[in-house]
Each structure stands twice: as structure tokens, then as C-alpha cells.
Amino acid sequence: MRTYKDRAEMDERYERTVIQLMQSQAYRELAAAHLFGHGLAFAPELRWIKFMTWHIREEVEHFEAVARMYRRFTGDDVTPVVMERLEARPVDRADSWFELAMAQFLFDRGGFWQLREYEQCSFLPYRDVIGKIIDEEAGHQGLGERMVVELVATGRYEDRKHRDFVKWLRHGLLSFGRPGTEGNRYAIEVGIKKRDSGQVMQDYLDDIKPAVKACALTFPAPAELGLEMPPMLDWSLDGVEASDAGRWHAPSRLAD
Q1: What is the CATH code of the structural domain delimited by 7-244?
Q2: Domain boundaries in the chain?
Q3: Which of 59, 174, 189, 215 has the most CB within a 10 Å radius?
Q4: pLDDT in tens, 191-222
């Protein structure tokens, strides 16, 4: 597969796709910082205040890394593009510590699986930046899952756990984009990403199933999510071990 370092090496479509990719990633990083920044108000203890401020700073640093790459590639600042998108499509907010834990679990996990599709990106600067972000994101991926499982186990959130689960599951699935599109096929053909969005959705669902079962949750009907998803997705919890929840380990880098 041909790889690229410089803009001059690319044809117009590849160049346009890479620019859109960087803009989208910058949006996701800053949107996450806004989400967790707002949620800082719900942190119940000093240790969680410290964790949330660290997490916000990490998301901002990831945004900055993408912004530097964007400036080197285009000569422009990506910040106005991202701020315009955030104004048009502001990130949803959590209204409690429990909902923030659900967002930490499902929104963050969706972003992690989305990033892994670019580990072998044919645009080498993007591969380098994303690799660093993946390594740092992997360090806290299990935390949100453990938080949700432990909070649900208290029995205090039965009246809202399904609502918050559906809301943030939808956001997690939105991370992957529409499956089966011509744009997906092009990105795979030129080595920008590895697989179609539908395949990544399945990995994400399989990854969260132990926690779903441990929390006595059920997946909503696809129509309830209002997203375009492949009909062959497996939503079943048959054979899933609830005891596996909270034992998350990062998948091996560059795994197929």
C-alpha cells in the first residue's frame, strides 16, 4: 500500500479526505474536553476532581496534536473550523455523576475503537499522531466501565440507567460514521482506514457486552437509536460473562 507524507504527493480526493479526517478528529477531541469540562461540576470527591481535570487536559493536548498536524499540512488553524462545528452541533452534556460515568464509558470507548482503524493509515503523519493518542487513551479505558458497573450495583440508578445507556450508546456508535458508504470503501482502498464502519461497530458492541450484562441492561432496538447500522450486527448477550466486566485490556496494536 502506498504511503504519503507530503501534500504534494496526493491527488485531490486523497488530500480532501485527509483534511476532512483531521477536522473531524479535532472536533471529537475538543468536544470530549467540553463534555468532561462541564461534568467536572459533578465530581463527588477530590480524587475524581483530580482525575477529571487530568482527563480534560489530555483531551485538549490531543486536540493540540491534531491542530499542529493540520497547520503543518494546510498552513491554517483548525480551531475556527472546530468551534463553528461545536456551535452548530454542541456536544450533549451529562446532568449527573452517574451519567458522566456512562459517557466516560461509552463515548470514550467508541472514540478508542474509531481511532484504532487508523493505526496503519497511509498518511504517515496521521498514523503517528493517532498512535500516540491511542496509547494514552488505552490507559483509562477500563475506568468508565468500572465506574458504571459499581454505581449500578448500588441500586440507586435503576430509574435512569437505561435512558443514559441508550443516549451514550448512540454517541459511541456515532463515532464510526455511516457504514457501507462509497466514502468508506474509498478510505479502505487507499489505506486511510482498515475496515468498514459496520465491522468496527460490532467490535465496539462485543467489547461493552460484559458490562451491559453485569448492569442488567438490554440493548435497545436499532430503530430506537435512530442510526444507520448494518442489519447483521449481533446484539445478543448469549454466552457473555458478566464477571468479565471491569477487566478491560487494550487490544494489541496493529491487530487485524
Answers
A1: 1.20.1260.10
A2: 7-244
A3: 59
A4: 999 999 999 999 999 999 999 999 999 999 88
Query: Do residues 201 and 137 lie in contact, with contact meaning Cβ atoms separated by under 8 Å?
Result: no
With beta carbons less than 8 A apart as the criterion, state whether 166 and 217 touch. no
DSSP classification of residue 226: T
The 3-state DSSP class for residue 2 equals coil
Mean pLDDT across the stretch 140-168? Answer: 93
Q: What is the pTM of this model?
A: 0.91
Per DSSP, the three-state class of 130 is helix
242: three-class secondary structure by DSSP: helix
Rg (Cα) of the chain, in Å, rounded? 18
With CA atoms as reference, report the closest residue to 148 among 192, 105, 179. 105
- The chain-wide mean pLDDT, for the chain, equals 92
Nearest to 205 by CA among 175, 228, 235, 185: 235
Q: Count other C-beta atoms under 10 Å from residue 213's C-beta.
A: 18
Say if residue 243 is exposed, middle or buried (CB neighbours under 10 Å; 0-12, 13-18, 19+).
exposed
Residue 123 phi, psi dihedral angles, 5° rounding? -90, 100
For helices 197-214 and 161-174, the axis angle rounded to 10 degrees is 160
Closest by Cα among 44, 32, 31, 52 to 150: 44
d(CA 185, CA 92): 30
Q: What are the counts of helices (DSSP H) followed by strands (DSSP E) for the chain?
A: 10, 0
